[in-house]
Structure formats: structure tokens, C-alpha cells
Amino acid sequence: MTLTKNDIVMRVSEMGFSKQRSVDIVENLLVIMKDTLAVGEDVLISRFGKFCIKTKGERKGRNPATGDEMILRDRKVVTFKCSGKLRDRINGDD
């Protein structure tokens, strides 16, 4: 099962917030995270994990439609490394 943004909003609203307030809370949290990552800073959430920006270098690629080789430019990707606490919980070690 996939946890969607709407599912998160519903869980926040179960804590006593109105539906609209819950939407605002979740949206604002995501905007803060996106803005922080966009300027190249990491997002660390204690006991959950760390979102980081990594740079992938230029490399050879292939157009899947035509099979033509091409050079893929440098790009940045977001990576996630879970905390030890989260890893333990996932593995049932908590």
C-alpha cells in the first residue's frame, strides 16, 4: 500500500485539526523541505532519516525509443538515508 499526501492529511486531521488546517500543515512542511533541498542543503528529521542532494556526473545514455546513444548531462538527485531507529523499527528490532 502506498501512503499518499491525502492519507497524511487525513492522519493529521485525526489529531484534532480541521481538514483545511491539516492540508496547510502538510503543504507547508513539504514546501519547507523542497525549498531547503533546492538550495542544496540537507533535510535531517531526527529518528526518521536524512534527505540529501547528490550530483550525478555526465554519462553515456541511450534513447529508449530510437536506441541512439547520447551524453546525459550532470544532474542532481535527492537521496534518502533512514535513521538507525527507523531501520530498527522496519526490521522489528524496536
Automatic annotation (TrEMBL):
Family matches, as CDD domains: IHF_A
Pfam families according to UniProt: Bac_DNA_binding
Keyword Transcription regulation: yes
Keyword vocabulary terms for this entry: DNA recombination, DNA-binding, Transcription, Transcription regulation, Translation regulation
SMART domains reported for this sequence: BHL
SUPFAM superfamilies given in the database record: IHF-like DNA-binding proteins
InterPro entries tied to this protein: Hist_DNA-bd, IHF-like_DNA-bd_dom_sf, IHF_alpha
Protein name as annotated: Integration host factor subunit alpha
